[in-house]
Structure formats: structure tokens, C-alpha cells
Specification:
CATH superfamily: Phosphatidylinositol (PI) phosphodiesterase
Largest sheet: 8 strands, parallel, barrel
CATH topology: TIM Barrel
Shape: globular
Structural class: alpha/beta
Number of helices: 13
Strand content: 15-25%
CATH architecture: Alpha-Beta Barrel
CATH class: Alpha Beta
């Protein structure tokens, strides 16, 4: 399948080649973390790639002095045991914090700056940057300092983040981008930005009656030369637990992978985000032979 606008094909080749060879990519939510390894860190990404990941996800936020960190704001109590939001911290404060292990002991490490993540990323490894749509100009400037990022990084933002689309349109370097879509109208709206390198869509379906759960609409998205990303992760929050019709990690692991991940393969989903890469990798080899 061709990918996105033809004029951006050379930028998107790394992603395109991987999907062509592996049929469905494994994206790992905040990396693989636990024990002494902290989410959204180089250690978590190393673990994820060793478990079969094709892509890792990073939540990016800025401190008050403009330093970008790979960290999901709102999780400061879980990770550091403090209530202050990283967005209200200076980089000096962040660097002084030591994360907690899964046993609630202090770890020896620290969280990573986005610059460190980009320096670490393996040559053909892919990185999805999430939750950064409010600071896209700053993120794009950092990506420009890392030439390989053009072929490795996929940015995301919801349609409501108009400033993010404007930043992408105005920026001369056309990084890969996936809008977060809840309807076919969202898909069409995203494609109106001719100067944005839209490679695919993260499609959300809170139940099986949702528009983007429908196989025919998924086919139409593919006909627009776009890839599809689905979240199999289970957040656990009331109202947002089911991101794609309960075809999720829980049913795949606790019941049968054919009932979750297998049905996503049947729908020809191109990228699945999971918290369990080793198990999805094993099942992909069994079901798809790759």
C-alpha cells in the first residue's frame, strides 16, 4: 500500500518498509517498564525493543525553563511520589528527582530528556511522540537537531489542536504525523492540511457501533493511502477504558489472543499499541508468520 502523499514517500520509507515486511507493527505504550526500569525512559525503550517492538511511544512535556522531557504529566505521584506537575517544574527540579521502583523504593536512575531519547534511538527504530501538541514548535526545533528523526519520529495530535496543525504546516521539515480521529469526518478534515505529512490515523472506537470500528470505513482510510493505528492498551479509567471496541490486551491475554489482537489483524490494522509486546510479538509470528 502506498503511504500518504507521494511527495513525502522518501521521508516515510522507514515506516512503509516495516509495515510492508511485518504486516502489523507493534508499538509499545511508554516502553516496557517495571521493577527498577521507569516508564518513558531509555531503559524502558531498550526493554521494549528486546521484546519485539517496532516502535515505542513517548509522552513529551516541557519544564518552565523550556527543557523537553519524556514523561506523562499527571503521573508525578506514581513515578516520583510528588504532587507537583512537571509542567510547573524547572529542569533543575526534574533532574533532582529520583523515580520510584515498582516496590516503591528509590531508583538510581532518572527520567530522560527528549534529546537523550532521540540520541539513543536505534537506526531503524520508530518513536511516536504523544501529548506534545501544545508545544509542537518547541518539539519540532528539537527534532531538527537530530537528522535521523525525520525517518524515525511519528507525531500525534487530536483534530482540536489546531495550533499543532498550523505548526506542522509552517515548519519546513515534514515529519510524519498521525491525527487522532473519532470519525470519518475527522479523517477528511486532517487531509485538508496539504502541507502536513499525514501518514495515517489513530482511530478511536469506544464501542463496536462506532464509525471507525466499521471494516468498510477502515478500508476507506486505507484507500486514502493512510495507515491505521489502534490502541489495544487498557487504561482502566471509567469512560475511556475501551479505545477500540474491547479488542484489547486484556481479552487477548486473559481469554484468547484471537479474540483481541487476532481480530485487529483481520481488520488489517497497521499498528497496534500494546503494553505487552513480547506476547503480541509471539502471537504475530504465530498468526501472520512474521
Amino acid at each position: 500500500m502506498a503511504l500518504g502523499q507521494a511527495r513525502f514517500a522518501h521521508i516515510n520509507a522507514n515506516l512503509s518498509d516495516k509495515i510492508s515486511k511485518k504486516k502489523c507493527l507493534i508499538a509499545v505504550h511508554r516502553g516496557s517498564w517495571g521493577g527498577n526500569i521507569t516508564q518513558n525512559t531509555i531503559g524502558a525503550y531498550k526493554a521494549a525493543f528486546q521484546m519485539g517492538a517496532d516502535m515505542v511511544e513517548s509522552d513529551v512535556n516541557s519544564t518552565t525553563d523550556g527543557v523537553l522531557y519524556s514523561f506523562h504529566d499527571g503521573h508525578e505521584p506514581d513515578v516520583f511520589g510528588v504532587d507537583k506537575c512537571i509542567k510547573q517544574m524547572t529542569s533543575q527540579e526534574v533532574e533532582s528527582l529520583r523515580p520510584l521502583t515498582s516496590c516503591r523504593q528509590r531508583a538510581d536512575g532518572r527520567i530522560n530528556r527528549l534529546s537523550e531519547i532521540l540520541d539513543y534511538l536505534p537506526g531503524d527504530g520508530l518513536l511516536n511522540i504523544d501529548r506534545a501538541w501544545g508545544i509542537f514548535p518547541q518539539v519540532l526545533q528539537e527534532l531538527d537537531r537530530h537528522p535521523d528523526a525525520l525517518h524515525q519520529v511519528v507525531l500525534k495530535a487530536p483534530l482540536k489542536a489546531k495550533a499543532a496543525f498550523d505548526a506542522l504546516s509552517a515548519h519546513p521539515v515534514k515529519y510524519m504525523f498521525m491525527p487522532i480521529c473519532y470519525s470519518m469526518q475527522d479523517v477528511e478534515e486532517a487531509l485538508r492540511y496539504a502541507d502536513v505529512n499525514v501518514v495515517g490515523c489513530e482511530i478511536i472506537a469506544f464501542d463496536r457501533n462506532a464509525e471507525l470500528f466499521d471494516d468498510e470505513n477502515i478500508r476507506k482510510i486505507h484507500e486514502r493511502n493512510l495507515y491505521t493505528w489502534v490502541n489495544a492498551i487498557v487504561l482502566g479509567n471509567i469512560g475511556v477504558r475501551d479505545l477500540f471496541g474491547k479488542l484489547d490486551d486484556d481479552v487477548s491475554i486473559l481469554e484468547d489472543p484471537a479474540l483481541g489482537w487476532g481480530k485487529l489483524f483481520d481488520k488489517h490494522i497497521d499498528i497496534i499499541q500494546t503494553d505487552w509486546p513480547a506476547l503480541l510479538y509471539q502471537y504475530r509470528r504465530q498468526a501472520l508468520g512474521v
